[in-house]
Structure formats: structure tokens, C-alpha cells
Amino acid sequence: MKNKSILLIITLCLCVCSSQAAEKIKVACVGNSVTYGYGLQDREHDSYPVRLQQMLGEGYEVQNFGHSGATLLYKGHRPYIGLPEFHQALDFKPDWVVIHLGLNDTDPRNWPDWKEEFIPNYRALIDSFRLVNPEARILVCKMTPIFDRHPRFQSGTRDWHAQVQKAIEQVAQGAGAQLIDLFTPLHSRPDLFPDALHPNPEGAKILAKTVYSALTGDYGGLQLPPVYSSGMVLPRDEPLLLEGRANARSKIRRVLSKDGKVVDEGETFSRADGSWSMEMSEMKAGGPYTLTITAKPLNPDHYRFYYPEKYPYLLDNLTKAEPQTLTIDSLYFGDIWLASGQSNMELRVDQCNTLEQDLADAKRLTNLHIYNMPARARTDAVEWDDSVLAYTNQLRHMDFQGWKTASPESVRSFSAVAFNFGRVLCDSLPDVPIGIICNAVGGSTTESWIDRSTLEWEFPNILRDWRNGDFGQPWARGRMTQNIAHALNKESAAYNPLQRHPYEPAYLFEAAIAPLGHLPIRGVIWYQGESNAHNIEVHERLFTLLEQSWRKFFAQRWRSEFHKKHPLPFYVVQLSSLPRPSWPAFRDSQRRLAIHPTFRGDDREGLPDTWIAVTSDLGDPNDVHYRTKRPVGERLALQALKHTYGHELVCEGPTLRFAGRGMDNDIFLHFDNADGLTCTKGFEIAAYDGMFHPADIKIEGDKILLSSPAVKYPMLVRYGWSGFTDADLRNKQGLPASTFSTTVR
Question: Same structural domain for residues 263 and 246?
């Protein structure tokens, strides 16, 4: 009897074990070489399906059905439906099918001729899996990136890749399949793709984590961009779109309170991809408030479609999780400005010659709130160690130091330009909290601040091997090489020919702009150009793209009528004086980029809502980092008060409106902002031969007459045309005129 009982127990255990084994969720990873693990030295350990199995655990059985070179197109050069892996995947009868196909369909042998068949072919592939398992859950993946180093990138791959991505989105919608975005998490990591197409082990791990989150709904819980933290400023007088992440299909609730009383609240739900957004009501300037955001799991019925009842432990993971809460205390509503660029924007208050005055002002500026994002490692003339190389690759180069109210202690290490800009705004807008985020990086290039997609489509050549090319300034490329020398040493354990650096194209957008999470800033103050002054024509293209890039990124779906009519304003510091040969022409280029219709002497208008602050009177002939930054912030603030806030004031020095030829072999120049003109030097004129001579200067009201006995028929005029200039044209407000050149017609 005892033996029979033991036998019965063993039999029951075996049945239970067998039942549990049968209940494992079978996951089929269908795809091409990326799924297969091509290029990985140990694909049996590092391919994304293997990593996925490790993440999912014992309740799942994950199988890799990838085949290198496979196409989705039936008439492609290697159709997946004709390969053994396809039939093996069908025989597996998977519960969940993760499909990542399309990369090889961008081949010129495939897409140009057969693209019309892509969607029908994809739908047929999905139907094949639903035929063997009518309850199969289908997950369709947007493709992983193909980077600019791919040999066919500009001859079609870039364009066809984008077209295939759109078709995949249509397939997912039409087939009722869940869409997984494998592109976005990896597009900012070209260093993980040695051949521009196949991810290395770290890239495969990111791929697996992305698929894991889509399969399980586990996106790491409630999250907001790092800049959303206690002490912050949010926009006033307009609806705000809050955006974040949470586990899939969570109930998201926000409560805004002041002095313990609720003043605004709302609810929404996170989507299948973990993203959520909700519109927040308009708030008047003021504070402090407390914003509380809570993510709460839903009841099981909300998850049945993706997580069937026969897998109860999946539901338990989602529905029995504890609610999560994020609280932002000392929240203010006002205006947020972004201060960015390179070292002259980065230069700290305690490095400038008005330190005591600035610290005294900081004591009274309780309405000024600052968020400092300095680089974790400086780009000085040093070789970085392994830790710096690693976190730079991981886009963790910036130090997010949190919001602080202005005080002598907090502003000492903050940008002097940004602080003094904020100081003037606070004094001029006493009832409006002002928030300033500074993420400037010394030596950074214009191209490093532009998003990758914009560069891929508008200026792809600058992406390719920037360190060894000729688009970047030789100084910047040399400093990059010095910093990452350890990674370029083949004998080093840190050897990585794709090592990242803040100066390379797109890097600082990915590491310093993207983490701001579409925060609706009021405007930008920008001080950069020293690392691009060697190539004016390229800079003009790049700065135009930078403005387009940022305006697109920071735009929100709900904007006030003012912001719809007026693009995100850029207030740009013109390069100061320094004895470098290209700087006069570069300053003039910056002027032309910001030129507006009041001046009729140029062939074209400049960029919209772009204004410059002139600083050529403040420079130091021996130091690019001149220490007189207080007036720079003040001049930027004057521009912002005039053009963003509508104050009636003179915000800039004399600006040329019209140039003509006089009766007495002279040239006359009419200026705006010309009350109280003074000038003793700085003008040169030339005939058609281009031989310039110093001009005699005569001032008549808003007009200046120029002449020279050495120039018989003057046609050309230039002002302040030397690297370090002592030109002194000003108005009664003491504001200087910009370097400029023009032709008298």
C-alpha cells in the first residue's frame, strides 16, 4: 500500500511537470541575419533570441528562426518562405511570433521592382502563423537601423529603408499585430554596429530587452525625463503635454496641488509600447505647486488580448504590482530657456570678472531656477580612461545635476552668460519664474548638436568618418583623437574604432538634447561657432539644420497661437574679437543668418526668429575665453525682451538698413537703432578692384558718410573687418554694431 502511494505521488508529480512544460509560452523569433546573430563571435550565447530566453525565464521557450540574407518579399533574392527556418517555425506552432524582416528587402535587387508586393506578402506570412495557431500573438518589428557607413546608404538604402518602415507600420495596423520599435533604441548607437548593419553583443542585448518589454509589458515602471524633478519650471499660459513611460496599460493619474488643495487633475493609460501622454491645463505664472503622478496596474480584463488567461503568472506580474508614484515638489509655472553651445557659454560665474556682483545679485533672484548639465569629462588635452570611454559610448556624458533656486552657492558653477540672461529676465518680469537649463560643452561642434535623422537626410557626408574627414575643424578632430586615443590602440582592451565623442556629428543631440524629452522651452540662447569658424559655408548649412532640428524636437501637439505663429526663437552670440583670420567673415556670416527684412542691402533674408548679440567689443586678444560675460547675458536678454516678450526698447546696436552712393565720391550708410551714433574707426572702403583703405567717417543723424582720397569710385564697404577689432560704432545705449560687409549698387 505504501509503495502504491509513493507511485501515485510520483505519477502526479510527473503529470504536473508535464502540464507545466506544455504550458510554456512558445516564442518564435522570425527574421534575417540580425535575428540569426550574424557577426557575433558567440551567437549561441549573444544572439538576441538567446538573451530573450534568459530574460523571460523558465515559463517560456524561445527559438531562433533567423536566416541570414532572408527577404520578406516572395520574389526577393532569398525569400523567407522558401527557407527551412520558415517551415521549422510553422512546425513549432508558436504562441507568440516576433517578426523582424525587411532589411534585405532594401537591396536594389528587391525593393525597386517588388515593393508593391511587400504588404500583401507580409500579411500572407502572418496568416501562415495564424493558420497553425489561430490564437497566435503576432508582433511585427520596425527594422533596426542601417547606418551611413553602409556602402549603399546614399544610393538607395536610406530611402528604401524609410519606405519599408512605413509599410511595416501599415502591416501591423492592418493585421491587428503589435508593433515593436527596434529602430529608435538603437539609432543613437552607431558604435554597436561594426558593419553598419549587424549589432554587436551589447546591441543584441538592447534588442532583446526591447522585445522583452513588448512581450511582457514590463518597461521598467513609471518614468519621466530626468529634467522633470523637484524645483523645476513648467510653461505658463499654455496647455502642456506631459509625456513619460510606464508598464503597458497602466492607469496614469496626475494631481496638481497647491497648499494642499487640488487645482488640476487628469487620467490616461499607458499604451502597449509603455508610452503615455496627457494634456495639462493652462496655468498662470507662479508657484510653488506639487505635481504627483501615479501609475496603477489595471484589472486582468484589460490584459486578456495580449496575455491570455492560460498564462496566469503573466497577469499576476502586471496586475498585482504595487502602484508607483513620482512627486515633483516646489514646481513653478513660468518660462524655460535653454542655454547651449560650447566653452564661452559653459564658462562659469566663478571664472569671470564680475563674480562678486553676480553673487550679490543671486541672493535676491528667488524667481530664477537653474538646471546645470555639465559634461562629466572635459575635452581638455588629455587621454580618457576606460570608464570615460564607456559612459561616453552609453550616451551618459552629461551630468544631470537637478533644479536649484538661484543663490550664491548654486550659481558659482553655472554659466555666467546664462545666469546674467536670467537675471535680466527676472528683473524685467518680476512675477514670472524663469527656468534656465544649461548643457554647453567646451569645444563642441555645430554638427554634434543636430539629430542623426536630419543629418542622414540633409547632410549625410558629414557623418562618415568625421574624425578623419575634412568637414570638422582640424583642432576639434585632433582633440577628439587625443581624448579617445586609448580606444584607438589595437593593443588596448578598450579598443573600439567606433568610439564615441562629444564633438562627433549627432552625439550631443543624443546625449544632451534628447534627454530633455520635448520639454516646451520658450527659447534658446546659443553661443558656439569657434569650432566651426574654419568653414563658413558648411557652418551656414549646419546652423540652419540645427534650428530645424530643435524646432521639430521641441514642438508639441498643443501649442498656443503665439507659438504656432512664431517658431522657437534663437538668440545667438556673435563671435567676439580674437586675432584669427577667418573670424571677421564668420561674424558677418552670423549677422547674415540673423538678418531681417528691415535691411534691404542683402540678397536674402536670414533664418526666422533668429537674432544676434554682438560681443566684438568685449574680446581678449590673448584668450578665446574672455572673462567679461555679464554684458553678453544682458544683450541676449534685451533681444529676448524685445522679440519674445514684446517690450518696447532698443535691443541692439546700429544695424545697416541701406547703403548708397553720394554725390561727392562718397558712400552713405543709413542705420536703424541709430540715435546718438558715435564712431571714430573701423570702416574700410574699396573700389571694384577690392583694394580696401581706411575710410574717413562723418556722422549725420542716422547716416554715416564714408570717403577716402585713395578710392576714386567706392563700391565696397566693410566694418570691423579684423579678427580682433577696435571698431567702435555704437548708439546712445552703448550697444555695438556688428561686423559687416556690403556692396553699394
Answer: yes
